[in-house]
Structures are given as C-alpha cells and as structure tokens.
Amino acid sequence: MPARARAYLYILIAIIIWAIAGPVIKYSLNYLDTITFLTIRFGLTSVILVPFWLWTERHRKHLFPKLKINDWILLIVSGLMATTIQLTLLFFGFEKTTAIEGTLISSVAPIFIALAGHYFLKDHITKHEQMGMTIALAGTLIVVGLPRNITNLWGNILVLLANAAWVAEAILTKKLLRHNLPPLFLTMFSFLMGFISMTPIYFIIHNSSFNIQISTNGWLGLIYMTIFSGIIAYWLFFKGQKTIEASEANVFMYLQPLIATPIGFFWLHEAITWNFLFGGLVIALGVGLAMRRS
Question: Angle at Cα 202 formed by Cα 55 and Cα 234, nearest 5°?
C-alpha cells in the first residue's frame, strides 16, 4: 500500500474511534464527573504506555530524543494542549450539550487547522482542498444551525474552545514531528503530562480524597477512552500525520458527525433532523473533493 494511502487509512480509523467517543463521553458522564474521569483515564493510559515505550526502546542508547530546551518546552505545551486543556474543555462541554451537537461543533476544527497550518507551517493547500473544505464547512453549518436550547449554548462554546486547543496542539505536533519524534513517544508523553497536571487538580476539587466507587458502565467508558480513544487513535493519528499535511489530515474530522449521530440517535435517543441528513451529504461531498490531488 502506498505511504499516502496508508496514512489516510490510519487517520480514518482514528477518526472513527473518536467519533464513537462522543456518545461514549456523554454516556459515561452519567457515572463519573469530568475531573475524576480524565484523571483516571490519563493515569491508566500512562501506566500502559510508559512501560511499553521503555520496552520498545530498550535497545536504544538513548531512551529519550535529543532536543533543545525550547523543543522540550514545545513538547510539554503540546502535551498539555492535547490532554489537560483540550479534553477538559471538551468533557465539560459534553456535560452541557448533546453528543450529536458536540461532535458536530468539533467537526469545524479542520478549517481553523488548515488556516493555522498554512499561516504558521507554510502548508500548501490545493484548489481541490480549498473547495472541499469550503463545501464541508457549508455542510457543517447546515447541520449545526442554532443550539437546541439556551442550556446547550454554554456547552457549545466550551466545545469550540476545545477546538481552539486542538488547533494549537495540531500545529505544535507538526513542528515536533519534523524532529522525527516517534508517534508512540508523542502519545505517551502527552498523556503523562495530562496525568501529572490533572492529579493535583483532582485532589484540590475532591479535598485530597481518592475514595472512588466506579460502576461497570463507568469502567466500560474508561476502558474505551483509555485503550481505543486514548492510545490507539492518538498513535494512528500521529503516525498518519507524519506523511501528509496537517490541513489534509484534519479534513477527515468532517466525517465524525456521520458516525456519531446514528450512535447518538439509537443509543442516547438524541434527535436526527432533516438538516443533518442533507448537511451530512454535503460534508461527504466536500471531504471527497478535498482528498483529490490537483
């Protein structure tokens, strides 16, 4: 399989996993609060990835990449953006809005990533990509429309802020990948930074108590978000992003509403409107056009 096609496949699988994650987050928040959920998730992911990283690198002379101080600072900021900042905003947003609306709003992130990648990284955007992104954005606007009620508005704003953090993280990650950093290392380091930064926040909010009783449903949500959305999806996305441009990789995010909405409808009993169905077709058309190479 050609390298570019393989990169597309990696990113597509990651996007499918993340699309399912929206309804999983909404469902799991019935059993765990955001801070507890993320602290445990970051901890479990770190416990799995750190030993695995050490084992895979056991034959190397240097376990950690040789980077300048500025690059280490960039790595730390990127890790915090990818986990503590972006995911905390996203989870708090999903507490207040529906899984369908949250996923739909998240899907506009590629437009901002494309613009930031073009401006900061000099990423080239072809005419097909420009036209495809415009069509996909139009489809997203058709679907999103106005919030269902005023209560959802604050949640939608938090999800948009999570998008901004995702954009910053995507640009920083692309810069770091130019140093040939392994995707596994980036994933491991991001979640380790998330756990280190989230742990004191947890103890402050919960008065230094770690007496947690988690139901089976809560554990199922944690396992999915840890293994699939946390480890596999991040690794696949970073690996795919090494081959193609940031703007091109993130255009796949437009597919998330097409996957998350049926799940939200059948599992969470959230409504599907005609404007979603029409907008979804427009999004699919835009993504297909953007993937064409001029």
Answer: 40
